[in-house]
Amino acid sequence: MAKSNARKAAEAAAKAAAQAAASAAQAEGKTAEEQAAVAAQAAADAAKIDPEQLVEARVLCDCTWGKADQVVQLRLADLEQAIDQGMVDDHPDAVAYAKSMKG
Q1: Side by side, which strands form the sheet with 54-59?
Q2: What are the E-state strand segments in 1-103?
Q3: Angstrom distance (rounded) from CA 1 to CA 7
Q4: Does residue 103 surpass a pLDDT of 70?
Q5: CA distances for 35 relative to 17, 22, 27, 78, angstroms
Q6: 87 vs 12, more confident
Q7: How many Å apart are CA 66 and CA 88, to the nearest integer?
Q8: pLDDT for 60-93, tens place per residue?
Q9: Which DSSP string do the residues of 73-91 spell out, in sequence order?
């Protein structure tokens, strides 16, 4: 399944949180095992994604999600399915382009 930009951003935030937590734990003099546990918990907390979260996307073709070049809001779970089907693009540039076509 294709990853939406929202999911990629959450994964990047999780990685950064884990690295920051591990560095802080190391500075506090914690053992390697404690550092790993702190990093894992920070990553898990940062990676939580609400599947009901609404994400804007540009519709690429007339389909069940909307008409071509419309900007729609889809639940994250639906968004990734629509991306897999090649029907929408959630990249910020694609959304901005579709919005600019209205004006």
Answers
A1: 71-75, 54-59, 88-89
A2: 54-59, 71-75, 88-89
A3: 12
A4: no
A5: 13, 5, 10, 37
A6: 87
A7: 9
A8: 999 999 999 999 999 888 898 999 999 999 999 9
A9: EEEHHHHHHHHHTT-EE--
> Using CA atoms, how far apart are residues 31 and 82, in angstroms rounded to an integer?
45
Inter-CA distances, 89 with 1, 10, 24, 77, 81, Å: 14, 18, 38, 14, 11
Phi-psi domain of 69 (left: phi exceeds 0; alpha: psi -120 through 50; beta: other): left
What pLDDT shows up at residue 89? 95
Of 60, 55, 53, nearest in space to 97 by CA? 60
Reduce the DSSP state of residue 27 to 3 states and report it.
Answer: helix
Give the pLDDT confidence of 32-62 residue by residue, as tens digits.
888 788 878 877 776 676 767 788 999 999 9
Place of tokens 């907390």: 45
